[in-house]
Amino acid sequence: MTGHFETLVYTDCRQGQGLKGSAGLQFQSRSADAAAAAETLVRDHLLYEPPSRWMADRRPVEQYPPSFAHISSNGILATATGLYLGREANGTREGNQLTHAIVTTDPASYADLRPAQLFQAGFWSSAPAPTTQSDPVRLGDGVGSDHSPTRAQAFVLDQPRGRETLLALVSALADAGRPGRSRVLFVGDDIASIVGWLVAGTLLLPRERALELGFKIFSTDPARSALPVVAVRPEFAGPAGRIDNPLGYAVFDLDRHQHTPIEPTAWARRWVDLFLTEDPRDVVDALGVAAASGLAGDDGRDETAAALGLAAILHRLPEPRHAEAIVEWLRTGPEGLRHAYGPDVADLFAETPERWPQRVLVLLDEVGCDGLVPGRAADVRLALIISELTDARLRGAVTDRRLPPLPAGEWHPDHSDQARQLLTEALTSGVPPQPFEALLRVATRFEVDVRWSDIAEAAEDFVRYWGDHPRDVRPAGFTCRDRLEERLQAVLEARARRSPQDRAEVGDGWWRSLLPRLKTLDFALAEAVLGAAVRHGDERDTVVKRYLTASRNDPDDFSWVAGALWSQSLPTTAELELVLDLAPKGARLPDRVFWKVTEGVTRAAVADRGLFDLCHRLVVPGLMTPSARVAAALAEDSELIDALTELRQRPNDGRSAVLLRRLRDCPARLIEMRQAEVVTALSGVVAFLSLDGLLDRHPGLMAPFVDRLVEALTTEDGEAPAVLAFYLAAGAGAPAAQQVARLEQALGRWMIRSSGGQLERAGRHLALHGSDWRESWQRYVDAYSSRRRMYRLSHPFRDR
Fold it and tell me: What pTM does this model have?
């Protein structure tokens, strides 16, 4: 059952006339077996109801009005008309009637008609079918014309209190019969008037609601019908017919032109007023578009749906508050409706694009890209440009999202000229730097080819601001970006040339972005960039190694690069080692690079051997030019190194004394710096008086010297450490008691294991210092004689 109606005829049948085959009231015919599924619905709800009192009074048949009814249940829709026939087909009793029903499972079978509009249509039958198979029905041209929107409008306007009644009726019908809602009860004798009101009321409901809204005209008792809408004659209305009844009916008394007080809904107010003042056919179509748009519902968007319907059919411009949703609908609404009405609605918006908010213009531009506003897409885009220019100029707001291209043929060279003029005027209007950047982004977003010559002067303030706020500007995609960056570089170069402080500030902000194009920068800016890259440390090791290595074959370039790298911070020792490895012959670095080294060599209270050694190595190849103070410090250190080197070679006593006096005269900080080397050298030299002078001048040597002698006595065989230990333990140099004890203990172990020759040579050393020292040594040797014999017995091959 699709696209047309099947039919059922119900009446009193003679034997063999009906579908049952027997006599009596039954379905006399049907158009197809598929119609049988609707028989129960028709029998229970749609059959003609002859009043029993009238039949008892044997009223003439012509006094019985026809019936008209409709129901929607479980996917079946059925509409029926009925009439009273009088006597039974097989006898003389009253009660015969005929009901002709049309049934379908396809709502589209009703086309764009409401069921009430089918009243008195030409296809209704008033007699039984010739056989048990009746004809199906198709709605032909002209069906429903007697109850068209135009006639319905005229009918309502002709009724007393017509607008008020229609407002209440539409409000009541919208929810009639739903849980917790009242049913609608018409009270009146004139079926034409009842149908007239029902037609007008359901025309102002969405078509789907009108199809599901069951009604029965007439019923002999409102309570007998379960349908949402019932009509009764006044004599059968009973208590339910009172307009103030408590029985759950919204009553419309058509004879008295009264109805139950009902608060009109917003939907009813909108569509009733339009229906009664505009072309009613357009209004019904507009309502249909609104209802089918997908915008209507319980979420407060009924007004937007109505605005869409009125735009589509009556070509009414929507209010701005509805514009965004409607333009969005042009791309996302039901395809059939968009195909039918989308171009007209889009064109309506595009006629005056300048009146819409920016977010609407964005959506409308997308519609233009879809080809839905042919001939107007460029105007929409220009309006969007103007809107975004205003936002950029006033609030600095802009989106970076690029727009898709318009369909071919929409954008012409004159549109490009207009867009360029708009951007140029905005950029040269004296805006501050931040809005200026936003305007540049608008030009990028819309791919407007702004000419540098037109904005160069206006861009100067922005470029200076950019130079001060590198993190606040994102140049990606800027129109005229190359020229802007040229000017920016020139500004930064000028700043970098002013002073070291300016160079540091420029480097702080710009080193990351400028380092990749270092070769394009002038020397001052390049120095600022390299110096900041090293000082900030993020990529320090990589930067230092990369740029020193790259310049290792050019002395002048290497010297400049090194100076730039450490223009804002001092090199580490490891970095200076790298300089030594990579520097080409002839390179000479700026003095400031070596400040840490020179300060350590000349001023540090505690001298650093590593710095002194590094300084020597930097001076030798000419990388560093020492100052007088540095040269003097290095000379003193060199003299100390030479003396220690010679002492380690065991010179004669006279020369040793000279060298020890030279050590005595060395600065304390250098002796302390090379303490380990000094005490090692001293431990092999016997020159008592010179040693006394050295220890007196540098008392800090005593403790490490004792440590060295103890180590030598334990691990070495020479006699010099023993002589020196004996000398100190005997009181020379005034070592501490603990140090004396350590020396004596170590010396005792040495005495036990030493050979006679070693002891004799040690004695000769002491004899040079005086006979008393020789005798004292001998007594010391004698004291260990027994232990020495025991040691020799256990170590027979030990004697040397």
Answer: 0.64
